[in-house]
Write a structure and sequence with these properties.
Blueprint (H helix, E strand, L loop, with lengths): L1 H4 L3 H20 L14 H23 L15 H20 L2 H13 L7 H22 L13
Helix pairs in contact: 2-3, 4-5, 5-6
């Protein structure tokens, strides 16, 4: 059994989903859950955590019972460090620029740097994608949802 599960990405992905779902349920249980008619702040996170646990169990169970697939290695033979670094750097840039620059530069930089992780992405396509997501994000979060996040700021005021 151990040899079968050594190369199963889906098994490990399902296990990770179960762990994240359990973490969400445990953390959300600190809030008032309420009832279906009067939902508390913890109701939705608990419900989503339970759904995540169930889906993770289904994925891991399916992977454990399926035939061994030699192509489904957990780690690739040649890691794409550029992609990994860009995808990790994107949210970090959003955090820093969100605090010191506002929503517009944070969103643009996050999408731009993350999209550069794709080796097939062009500079023009990345700029268009970043601008489009920034415009959509500003319209959605600032104008429709009224999230109190400044569009522009200079420093950490």
């Amino acid at each position: 059994m151990r040899e079968i599960l050594k190369h199963k990405r889906d098994f490990y992905a399902g296990g990770l989903m179960v762990l994240i779902g359990l973490g969400a349920v445990v953390e959300a249980s600190n809030y008032k859950i309420g009832t279906l008619m009067h939902m508390g702040a913890g109701f939705l996170p608990v419900a989503l955590g339970v759904v995540l646990v169930l889906v993770g169990i289904l994925i891991a169970g399916t992977a454990a019972t399926s035939a061994d697939d030699d192509d489904a290695r957990v780690f690739p033979d040649k890691p794409d460090w550029r992609g990994w670094l860009c995808i990790i750097a994107g949210p970090l840039l959003f955090i820093v620029l969100g605090k010191y620059g506002g929503l517009i530069p944070a969103t643009f930089a996050c999408v731009f740097v993350s999209a550069l992780g794709d080796r097939t992405a062009t500079l023009k396509g990345t700029l268009v994608l970043s601008a489009g997501v920034t415009v959509f994000g500003v319209l959605l979060f600032s104008y429709f949802l009224k999230v109190p996040f400044p569009l522009w700021r200079w420093g950490a005021w």
